[in-house]
């Protein structure tokens, strides 16, 4: 069967099972967005703490590196006895995997802020919290968002593994298609996932551009 015919059959499979596709896509997207949102909520404060207190940096970064090296399926296996099957253990696995890129980029973004800008802000009487809020974070936004974009793209691929513990998502079609040698079903689950990863990356790039533009005026100590 030619690749063109396979793609046509994949499209037909998707159309014939469109209601199921919407459900699986919704489950997949929910897993990814919730995991990335939780990772941002945890990683950004931890990154700030690591940047401001050297003694915490090795502990926080070391923990993040260890979490990243553990396969998602292993994390799922570890939490399964406690959380059982379904959405929650899948979310824990994705959250753990999404944490490190945001954490490392937050630390890098804050540490790479030009020291002369920080010293100028101190010379104007700004407190450390004001410097963080008005100078460092606005300047670090592009680097932090690069980490968020990386985490989002990684999470789209990792979310396929949720199938193994009843977490749903597009992995239902992909892994079932592999098991049954059903290429149209496999591609009907895989291609939308690839497009979803591209779409989320573009969305976060757009948000990054807008935020960077809005905070540009606050990058000088004289602002605010």
> What is the tally of beta strands?
0
Low-confidence stretches: 220-224
Broad shape: elongated
**Cα-atom Rg, whole angstroms?**
21 Å
Distance from N terminus to C terminus (CA atoms, Å) equals 65 Å
**Hey, roughly how much beta strand do the residues contain?**
under 5%
Main sheet specs:
none
Task: Bin the helical content.
Answer: over 70%
Let me know the average pLDDT: 85
Structural class: mainly alpha
Helical region count?
Answer: 9
Write down the secondary-structure element order.
Answer: HHHHHHHHH
Q: Might you state the CATH topology name?
A: MetI-like fold
- Total domain units: 1
The CATH homologous superfamily corresponds to: MetI-like
**CATH architecture label name:** Orthogonal Bundle
CATH class: Mainly Alpha
Keywords: Membrane, Transmembrane, Transmembrane helix, Transport
GO cellular component, one term: plasma membrane
Membrane topology: Multi-pass membrane protein
Domain ABC transmembrane type-1: 25-204
Question: What are the SSEs and their pairings?
Answer:
Layout: H1 3-16, H2 18-52, H3 54-69, H4 72-83, H5 87-111, H6 115-123, H7 128-158, H8 171-179, H9 183-215
Helix pairs in contact: 1-9, 2-3, 2-5, 2-7, 3-5, 4-5, 5-7, 6-7, 7-9, 8-9
Notable characteristics:
mainly alpha, disordered C terminus, MetI-like fold, 224 residues
How do you describe this structure in short?
The protein is mainly α and 224 residues long.
Describe it.
Residues 220-224 have low confidence and may be disordered. The protein is mostly helical and 224 residues long. Helix 3 crosses helix 5 (87-111). Helix content is 82%, strand content 0%. The chain has one domain: MetI-like (MetI-like fold), CATH 1.10.3720. It is built from 9 helices and no strands. The chain crosses the membrane at residues 29-49, 70-100, 131-148, 160-181, 187-207. Keywords: Membrane, Transmembrane, Transmembrane helix, Transport. It is found in: Cell membrane; Membrane. This is ABC transporter permease subunit.
């Amino acid at each position: 069967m030619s690749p063109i015919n396979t793609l046509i059959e994949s499209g037909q499979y998707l159309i014939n099972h469109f209601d199921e596709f919407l459900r699986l896509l919704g489950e997949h997207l929910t897993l990814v967005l919730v995991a990335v949102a939780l990772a941002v909520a945890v990683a950004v404060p931890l990154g700030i703490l690591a940047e401001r207190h050297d003694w915490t940096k090795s502990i926080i970064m070391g923990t993040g590196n260890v979490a990243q090296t553990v396969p998602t399926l292993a994390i799922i296996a570890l939490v399964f006895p406690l959380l059982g099957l379904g959405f929650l253990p899948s979310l824990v696995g994705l959250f753990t995997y999404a944490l490190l890129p945001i954490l490392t980029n937050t630390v890098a973004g804050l540490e790479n802020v030009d020291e002369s800008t920080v010293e100028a802000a101190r010379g104007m009487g700004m407190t450390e919290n004001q410097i963080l809020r008005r100078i460092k974070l606005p300047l670090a936004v592009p680097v932090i968002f690069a980490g968020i974009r990386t985490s989002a793209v990684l999470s789209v691929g990792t979310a396929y593994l949720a199938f193994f513990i009843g977490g749903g998502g597009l992995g239902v079609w992909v892994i079932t298609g592999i098991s049954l040698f059903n290429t149209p079903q496999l591609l009907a689950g895989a291609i939308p996932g690839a497009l979803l990863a591209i779409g989320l990356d573009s969305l976060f790039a757009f948000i990054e551009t807008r935020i960077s533009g809005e905070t540009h005026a606050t990058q000088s100590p004289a602002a605010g």
